[in-house]
Design goal:
Blueprint: E1 4-5, H1 8-28, E2 35-41, H2 45-61, E3 64-70, H3 76-88, E4 94-97, H4 107-113, H5 125-133, H6 141-152, E5 161-165, H7 172-180, E6 189-193, H8 200-205, E7 209-212, E8 230-233, E9 237-240, E10 248-251, H9 256-259, E11 265-266, H10 273-291
Parallel strand pairs: 1-11, 2-3, 2-4, 5-6, 5-7, 7-8, 8-11
Antiparallel strand pairs: 9-10
Helix pairs in contact: 1-10, 2-10, 6-7, 6-10
The protein binds guanine (GUN).
Length: 294
């Protein structure tokens, strides 16, 4: 059976060129271009890389962007003030506060302070509630990127058994809801598996679509995969690699080298879900501007 590589990098590049075209048209007719702000606290290597990639994507497609960096010692009160200022700033269409935050700051409190109409991460309870109800909202970027990738590769999801590994609030839980709803892609029978799931190998092996989002490198091995299954690898753990300039590389949750010979389709790491996440954030930012009537 020939395996299909689900190329998130190339798919994200075409989404971004579609967005660039839309922005160029707006600009040509004298209209405002979308403006995304990103708040980055501290020096966490992963967060710095992700936020830089988001800012770079804005530049590539003609969005305006603002990067607001603060020391890890910022107080919760100060950060809440930053959020409030962004809520009130008419120039900013949407913004994100990169997670994780330092331990002394309550992430939920910060997320709930964001104006839902500017919450392009889709993390605010209002947006999550709307997502559950199937109402128009900002969808969280990683799940939205996964669904868009399945769509653009015309992968049949209706009636399929989708196993989601990991119940995080930003990936596992929302993607399990999105794929179970009556939509296309969607209409899956979803199993949300996690650290307490019994017979995990068997559960994974029964999946037509397996979404691995637990952050444990090489966790999914070939004996957990049904022949022909579609594998979506959300893992992005940094591992030491002296052959790389940075001294590290990203490793997914799936043992790619052995799973690739069994599955029907698979996302690589890097170049799979990561670029799709950023593309989804850009889609949300354009929508934020349109929804706010600009
Ligand atoms: N940390 C890991 N993923 C994300 C994301 O999609 N958005 C934000 N704000 N923080 C993250």
């Amino acid at each position: 059976m020939s395996m299909q590589l689900l190329d998130g990098k190339a798919t994200a590049a075409s989404i971004k060129s579609e967005l660039a075209e839309a922005v160029a048209k707006r600009k040509a007719s004298g209209m405002k271009v979308p403006h995304l702000a990103a708040v980055l606290i501290g020096e966490d290597g992963g967060s710095v890389t992700y936020v830089n990639a988001k800012v770079k994507s804005c530049e590539e497609i003609g969005f305006e962007s603002s990067l607001l960096r603060y020391d890890a010692s910022i107080t919760e009160e100060e950060l809440l003030k930053v959020v409030q200022d962004l809520n009130e700033n008419d120039q900013i269409d949407g913004f994100i506060v990169q997670l994780p935050l330092p331990a002394h700051i309550d992430e939920n409190k910060v997320t709930m302070a964001i104006d839902p109409s500017k919450d392009v991460d889709g993390f605010h309870p209002v947006n999550i509630g709307k997502m559950v109800l199937g109402l128009p909202c900002f969808l969280p970027a990683t799940p939205a990127g996964i669904v868009e990738l399945l769509k653009r590769y015309s992968i049949e999801t209706s009636g399929k058994h989708c196993v989601v590994l990991g119940r995080s609030t930003i990936v596992g839980t929302p993607v399990s809801i999105m794929l179970s709803r009556n939509s296309n892609p969607g209409n899956c029978t979803v199993t949300l598996a996690h650290s307490r799931t019994e017979n995990l190998k068997e559960v994974c092996k029964s999946a037509d679509i397996l979404i691995a989002a637990i952050g444990k490198p090489d966790f999914v091995t070939s004996d957990m995969v049904k022949p022909g299954a579609v594998i979506i690898d959300v893992g992005t753990t940094r591992v030491d690699d002296a052959t790389k300039k940075a001294g590290w590389r990203l490793k997914g949750d799936v043992k790619f080298d052995e799973v690739k010979d069994i599955c029907g389709a698979i996302t690589p790491v890097p170049g799979g879900v990561g670029p799709m996440t950023i593309a989804s954030l850009m889609i949300n930012t354009l929508r934020a501007m349109e929804l706010n009537g600009k």
